[in-house]
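[job 4471] stage=fold_predict status=RUNNING
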Amino acid sequence: MADKMVSKHLVNLEKQFATTDPVLQKAVKVFQELDELEFEMALIDPEETTARRSSWWPLISTLGGYSPAKSEFLNRFLGVPLHTTRHKFTVLQYTPQTTSATLPGTALDADHRLPFYQVSRDIEQTNPGEGSKVNSYLELVTVNSNKLKNKLIIDTPVLNPATENAVNGLLRQHVIAISDLVLVFTDLFETDPEFNKDVIASIIKYQDTNKFLFVIDHSELSLDQNKSQEIIASWQRRLAEFGIFTGHYVVLSQNGDDSQIEQRVNNLNNDRSYRILESLENSIRSVDDVVMDEVESAITLWKERCNATTLIILSFIIMLILFAEIAVGILDLFFDPIIGPLIILALIAFLTPIHMIVSRVHAKFIINQLHKRQKKLNLSEDLAGLFEKSLSFWRVILPITQPVGKTKKNRKKLNHLLEQTKDLVQALNDQFSRSQFQEYPSSYEPQSGEEY
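[job 4471] inference complete, writing C-alpha cells
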C-alpha cells in the first residue's frame, strides 16, 4: 500500500499555529499519526484527515425566539447592520472588504475549514431529498467587523412554527454541539413549548460544558446592579423548571455593558483548544470502541452466513452421494487407500472456490449494511473499507473474525496517542496555572494559503 500523504489541511494548520499556539501545533502532529494508522486500516483515503471532523475556528452561536433581541444585539456587538435571512442558519465571517457578501449554503457544505462541512449528507439521512436543498437552510455572510477576526458566529433562525422541521432541529443540535460559546436569548423560553422542547433538550444535554451564556434583554430599561441580580435570580428559578441548572447570565440594559460577553469572547481561543483536544481524544477512542466493534460484528455475521450457505451446498453433495450409493454403490470408493483421498481432495478443490464465491456474494450485502451503519453512527471512517481489507484468502477460509489492524501493536499505538492528547491538555492547563498564556494578537489574520 502507498504511504499516507500528509493532508494539505494539516500542513496549513501546522503553519497556522507554529508561532501562535504550540499546543495546537502539537495536536496537529497527533492527528497526523492517527491519520496514518487509520489509512493503514483503509478507514480513510490518502488525502483525508480526521482533523476535519471539528472546526478549528473559535465558534460563537446564537439562539433566540421571536423577538428582535438577538438580531439587535448582533448589530450592536459587531458595530455594523446585518442583512441576514431570519429563516436560515447564517455563518458570519470576517472580511476586510467594506462591502458585505452573501454566499449560498453550498459554500459551507463544500469547505472543510468551515462548520457545516458535508452536512448535506446528514440532512439527506434525516429527510431524504432535502440534502440537495442545502441552500434553503444555510448561508455564509461576510462582515467587515474586527469583532469577527479569527472567529465565526453562527446565527440560528428564530423558532417559527411555519418553517420548523426535522432538518432545522438537526442543524440546531449540530450548532450547539460544535460551538464554544452559545448566547441563549431568554425569549427562546417564551416561544411555543411544542417547538422549543428539542432546543431545550439539547441545552440540557450540554449544560455541563460551560458553553452557555443566557442573555436577558432589557435594553430599553435603565437598571442598577441590584435590579439586574433580581432579574437573573428570577430567570435562574424559571430555567430550573425546564431542567437547566448551570450556565452564566447577563442582563442587557441601557446603562449596562457587554463586558461579560466580551470576556467570554476573548477567551474563545482557549475554549476552541479544549474542544479540538476533546475531538482528538474521541476520534482515537472511537477506533477501538466503535469502529473495530462494528466491523468485527459485521465479519462475524458474514462468516455465519457464508458457512451456512457452504454447509447447504455440502449437504446437497452428500445427498447426491447417498442417492448414488443406493443406485450403484459407491461408498466403497471412499475407503479405497488411493481413490478415497483423491475424492476428498477433489471435493475440497470444488468447495473452496464455491466458498470464495459465496463469501464475495454475502460480502456485498454486508458492505451495503455497513454503509448504512456508518451514516447512522455519523462516522467519517469507512467501515466497509476495513471490512473489505479483512477479506483476504486465508481470512475467508479460516475462522478469523477480528478485523485487520485489531492487534496489540495498534492498540499500543492508540494508547500512546491518548497519552499524548492527555499531555497536551495538561500543557494547556499549565498555561493558566503558570500565567504564561498569551492570546492571539488582535491584529492577527490568517495569511494567504493558511486556514483554520
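[job 4471] summary: The two ends are 30 Å apart (CA to CA).
[job 4471] exit 0
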